[in-house]
């Protein structure tokens, strides 16, 4: 069955569409909504094959739809319904096409007109662009190198791909991305939150700070007081627009499982969980993995990264960590003082040319995370330490820092 969802305010138009749908060949059905909010609610539960929207002739209504397309990730073809006397050269129609309307249906709506729209949509090539992919980097405590992993991954992606890459510093209370990249942002995520009702892809790209690698950065607020304006709803809106403005989005989340962090996970295609081989840290990581299970973030949508690894008396091996957590360890990054030096200089360790040491390990990890987040790239085969394994390959594997 082909399902249509029509957003209309006119009773006569509703009657026209019902009659046109009934007269189509094949199995078709149409549901109706009176406004955008009810349409969004409907689409969340039952995605239509075609979205029909009555155009009011107001540019303000198009602004509302542009915002909705970006924030709520509307991916089905959108068809505008026009009065019979609408001028095809009208700037309103040009604007409608620009924001994503695929075709138009003139009134009075008929089965022939509707069938023609369906055929044109079916024949047309998919839009060249597609929504970006989001990687969330998370931990349950500070100091495990979560931000270092997020920043180095983002810089490597920006420098080594032809993708538009955005790093969002969502560690709102203690974000360090700007400092670690030696940037002085003019605007932060708090400024973006203040204009969320009119935020779109173009605006978001313009307010980010550009790093020399090509990376765009949306920095954390300068003070905890500024961060109070960024709640889970606001974060979800910002990330929804980010995925329409950029090909790849990396979010450095706050080390706390609150509503804002859960909103980030909800938007993410993949979650990288960063931990250390220290028992108290692993206890928190185990709780996070259980929470991800409850949120239906399956194991194929997450990676476990053992960072700042030190092989000393009393410490757990990567194999023991995997066994304790019941989850494979995707990558082992050894402790290296050069990471601290890089932080002080504001130059990520992936900026070094050597494929040895921590810089090389970070690049290989970034390549693997790029593959896992679902983009086309060369596949790097990491050492994955399975639960119960007694292998010590993590100490000599290509993805482990030396």
Automatic annotation (TrEMBL):
Region (Disordered): 381-402
GO molecular function: ATP binding; ATP hydrolysis activity
Domain CobQ/CobB/MinD/ParA nucleotide binding: 135-349
GO biological process: negative regulation of cell division
Domain of life the protein comes from: Bacteria
UniProt xrefs under SUPFAM superfamilies: CheY-like (SSF52172), P-loop containing nucleoside triphosphate hydrolases (SSF52540)
A GO cellular-component term linked to this record: cytoplasmic side of plasma membrane
Polar residues: compositionally biased ranges: 381-391
Gene3D superfamilies (UniProt xref): 3.40.50.2300, P-loop containing nucleotide triphosphate hydrolases
Protein name: Response regulator receiver protein
Gene source species: Rhodopirellula baltica WH47
């Amino acid at each position: 069955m082909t399902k249509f969802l029509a957003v209309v305010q006119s009773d006569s138009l509703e009657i026209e569409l019902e009659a046109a749908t009934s007269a189509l060949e094949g199995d078709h059905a149409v549901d109706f909504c009176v406004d955008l909010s009810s349409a969004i609610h409907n689409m969340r539960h039952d995605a239509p094959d075609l979205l029909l929207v009555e155009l009011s002739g107001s540019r303000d209504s198009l602004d509302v739809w542009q915002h909705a397309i970006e924030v709520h990730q509307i991916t089905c073809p959108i068809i505008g319904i026009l009065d019979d006397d609408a001028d095809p050269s009208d700037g309103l129609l040009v604007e409608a096409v620009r924001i994503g309307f695929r075709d138009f249906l003139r009134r009075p709506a008929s089965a022939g007109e509707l069938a023609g729209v369906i055929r044109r949509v079916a024949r047309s090539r998919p839009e060249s662009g597609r929504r970006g992919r989001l990687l969330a980097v998370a931990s349950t405590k500070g100091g495990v190198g979560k931000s270092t992993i997020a920043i180095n991954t983002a810089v490597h992606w920006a420098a080594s791909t032809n993708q538009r890459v955005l790093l969002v510093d969502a560690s709102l209370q203690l974000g360090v991305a700007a400092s670690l990249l030696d940037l002085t942002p003019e605007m932060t995520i708090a400024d973006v939150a203040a204009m969320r009702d009119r935020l779109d892809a173009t605006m978001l790209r313009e307010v980010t700070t550009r790093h020399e690698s090509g990376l765009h950065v949306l920095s954390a607020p300068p003070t905890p007081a500024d961060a109070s304006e960024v709640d889970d709803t606001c974060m979800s809106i910002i990330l929804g627009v980010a995925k329409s403005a950029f090909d790849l989005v990396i979010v450095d989340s706050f080390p706390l499982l609150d509503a804002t962090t859960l909103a980030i996970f909800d938007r993410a295609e993949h979650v990288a969980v960063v931990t250390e081989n220290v028992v108290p840290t692993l206890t928190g990581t185990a709780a996070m993995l259980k929470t991800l299970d409850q949120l239906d973030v399956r194991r194929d949508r997450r990676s476990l990264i053992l960072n700042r690894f030190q092989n000393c008396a009393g410490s757990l091996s990567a194999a023991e960590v995997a066994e304790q957590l019941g989850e494979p360890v995707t990558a082992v990054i050894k402790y290296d003082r050069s990471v601290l030096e890089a932080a002080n200089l504001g130059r990520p360790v992936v900026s070094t040319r050597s494929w040895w040491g921590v810089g090389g390990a970070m690049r290989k990890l970034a390549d693997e995370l790029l593959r896992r987040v679902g983009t086309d790239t060369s596949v790097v085969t990491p050492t994955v330490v399975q639960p119960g394994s007694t292998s010590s390959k993590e100490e000599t594997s290509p993805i482990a820092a030396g």
